[in-house]
């Protein structure tokens, strides 16, 4: 098997590219915002993630100028900042439209029609995942999981949920975004642009229209069931009724071998129940 390593195929070119420096006015404004963010942390380098959102709000993606700004403010190297920035998928490496539309095709969303939604949007927008429409309004993204399986299939716009989608409703969604008739998220307040959302994630004030969302009914179903049946997790430190003291024995056993090296791989696989050695009805493998 051959595995080709490198940046994501939907983001060609250098991992991060663009302008190398900011104009003086932009740098001054970002510095004031950065000071507000950094002051919240006892160690300055802990502010790196929100600072990356701050420069992403400025540029619409990460640029060498943004990386250098974060590094200088936090006393880090450009390489250290880049290593973090390229690890998290919420930091974009290519210019992003006003609305980042992510379609989930992980297991449950795929079963419920996620692949069909992604294919429909590719044809409808005439772009592939990772690309932006000519008007700069929509960037299409293929995501692994939106962590909202109870409302599958889900489409996210700037990380706001649009639940129980179909190919037709997804097309209506992006048409509304392109025409300026911004739809309301299924469980959120008002939808913000990508740069506005990045600024909110940096921990700074968002637009006046930004409001908190609500929890959907499907998400609360398990909690309702637990309360109706008086179900609760065991109190901290108390053994579970089902373990009959086994938890304490396991803890003692783990403590006794914690400093021993892990066992080496064995050449022989122990016989298992159901094989020819233990099951007279089993037949030899060809």
From TrEMBL:
Q: What is its EC number?
A: 1.6.5.3
Matches recorded under InterPro entries: NuoE-like, NuoE_dom, NuoE_N, Thioredoxin-like_sf
Q: Does the keyword Iron-sulfur apply?
A: yes
Record's SUPFAM superfamilies?
Thioredoxin-like
Q: What cofactor does its activity depend on?
A: [2Fe-2S] cluster
Which PANTHER family does its entry note? NADH DEHYDROGENASE [UBIQUINONE] FLAVOPROTEIN 2, MITOCHONDRIAL, NADH DEHYDROGENASE UBIQUINONE FLAVOPROTEIN 2, MITOCHONDRIAL
Name of the protein: NADH dehydrogenase subunit E
Q: What organism is listed for this UniProt entry?
A: Mycolicibacterium gilvum (strain DSM 45189 / LMG 24558 / Spyr1)
The taxonomy runs: Bacteria, Bacillati, Actinomycetota, Actinomycetes, Mycobacteriales
């Amino acid at each position: 098997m051959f595995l080709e390593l490198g940046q994501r195929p939907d983001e060609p070119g250098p991992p991060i590219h663009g302008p190398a420096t900011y104009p003086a006015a932009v740098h001054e404004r970002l510095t004031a915002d950065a000071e507000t963010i950094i002051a919240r942390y006892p160690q300055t380098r802990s502010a790196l993630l929100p600072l990356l959102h701050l420069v992403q709000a400025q540029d619409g993606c990460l640029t060498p100028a943004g990386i250098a700004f974060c590094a200088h403010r936090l006393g880090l190297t450009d390489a250290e900042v880049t290593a973090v920035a390229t690890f998290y998928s919420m930091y974009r490496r290519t210019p992003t439209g006003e609305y980042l539309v992510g379609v989930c095709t992980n297991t449950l969303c795929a079963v419920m029609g996620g692949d069909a939604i992604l294919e429909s949007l590719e044809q409808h927008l005439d772009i592939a995942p990772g690309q932006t429409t000519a008007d700069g309004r929509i960037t299409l993204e293929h995501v692994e999981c939106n962590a909202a399986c109870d409302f599958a299939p889900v489409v996210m716009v700037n990380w706001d949920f649009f639940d129980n989608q179909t190919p037709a409703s997804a097309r209506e969604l992006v048409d509304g975004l392109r025409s300026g008739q911004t739809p309301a998220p299924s469980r959120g307040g008002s939808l913000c642009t990508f740069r506005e959302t990045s600024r909110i994630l940096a921990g700074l004030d968002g637009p006046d229209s930004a409001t908190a969302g609500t929890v959907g009914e499907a998400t609360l179903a398990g909690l309702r069931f637990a309360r109706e049946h008086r179900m609760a997790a065991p109190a901290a430190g108390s053994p579970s009724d089902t373990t009959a003291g086994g938890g304490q024995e396991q803890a003692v056993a783990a403590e006794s071998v914690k400093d021993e090296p892990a066992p080496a791989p064995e050449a022989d696989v122990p016989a298992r129940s159901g094989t020819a050695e233990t099951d007279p009805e089993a037949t030899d493998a060809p």
